Amino acid sequence: MSQDIWINLPVKDVERSTAFFNEIGFHAESFGNERAKLAIGQTTILLFPDAAFERFTGSKTADTSHSAEVIFSIGAKSREEVDAFIQKVELAGGSIFGKPSESDGWMYGAGFSDLDGHRWNLLYMDESKMPKS
Hints:
The chain has 133 residues and is of the alpha/beta class. 24% of the residues lie in helices and 38% in strands. The strands form two sheets. It has a four-stranded mixed β-sheet. The protein is globular and about 45 Å long. It starts with 5 loop residues before the first strand and ends in an 8-residue tail after the last strand.
């Protein structure tokens, strides 16, 4: 069985979302307003217009203004990378729902929503400070 995974994500405007993701430092390639491919590390996220997504899933898209359907977590290499990334998100028009902060003395992260309200988390884990079991 193949170990590849693609995540399909509904968006209101494929070209606008593609521009947003490129602006924050991801690699996104648009194929008109029909779909786009977003590559993050080894993960591929395909952006589809809401109507196309609803057609092939057989259900309505989640109303991200009232609920979250998923959170995408991305590893960062440093606290500075988290801070710089979140600044890019703000400049590109994303919303910050979790300002950069430390948690449990060894994790540093922040949360943001993209243009369609999908939630993302950027997290740096300082393994040298991780509690030992």
